[in-house]
């Protein structure tokens, strides 16, 4: 059974066949970790925010700047993003390669962060070529962050070098 937020967008079980997607619970407590470049509050669970602070400090000591492009996003907001892409003429199949169905995104857990780096557009494949990404590959694990969607991931998403999730 898919949540009604999915069926309302025309997302069917057939569309997700072969993709082992997990449904996640929405975050229970969130704090503001910082503001992003657009001045919007970046919300994370308290543990994730603490781990993020520790990780960015360690990175900064090695001359690497990491910042938050996007953090918590509600299930309702996820549905809105999909709806606006549908309205812009994208097919649901194309959309679901880059956006999780509502209820299945790590972003509403408050533990996922889309990470940005200087001189790299937000959520761009170029992120994989940045010193920030190289640093994360070597050190993020120490702070509890792992890459959710590597190349050729079984969940059927595009490679998202910028999307890291705190799993401790
Ligand atoms: Zn993400």
Topology diagram in text:
Layout: H1 4-7, E1 31-35, E2 41-44, H2 46-61, E3 67-70, H3 75-87, H4 92-95, E4 112-116, H5 131-139, E5 145-147, E6 163-166
Antiparallel strand pairs: 1-2, 3-4, 4-6, 5-6
The structure holds zinc ion.
Description:
The structure is a single chain. By secondary structure, this protein is of the alpha+beta class. It has a single domain (4-166), classed as Muramoyl-pentapeptide Carboxypeptidase, domain 2 (2-Layer Sandwich). Helices cover 27% and strands 15% of the residues. The chain has five helices and six strands. The protein has helices spanning 4-7, 46-61, 75-87, 92-95, 131-139, and strands spanning 31-35, 41-44, 67-70, 112-116, 145-147, 163-166. The strands form two sheets. Strands 3-4-6-5 form a four-stranded antiparallel beta sheet, with helices on one face. The longest helix is centred in the N-terminal third of the chain and has 16 residues, at 46-61. Zinc ion is lined by residues 107, 112, 114, 163.
- Extended strand count: 6
The value of Rg in angstroms is 16 Å
Structural class: alpha+beta
Spatially, the strands of the biggest sheet line up as: 3-4-6-5
CATH arch. level architecture: 2-Layer Sandwich
- How far the N terminus sits from the C terminus, by CA atoms, comes to 29 Å
The number of distinct helices, counting runs of at least 4 residues, comes to 5
Give the strand content.
5-15%
**Based on CA inertia axes, which overall geometry fits?**
globular
Order of helices and strands: HEEHEHHEHEE
Largest sheet, if any?
A: 4 strands, antiparallel
Using the coordinates shown, work out and report the CATH topology. Answer: Muramoyl-pentapeptide Carboxypeptidase, domain 2
Q: What is the averaged pLDDT score?
A: 96
Count of folded domains: 1
The hetero molecules present are: zinc ion
**In which range does the helix fraction lie?**
25-40%
pLDDT below 50 for ≥5 consecutive residues: which ranges? none
Q: Given this structure, which CATH class is correct?
A: Alpha Beta
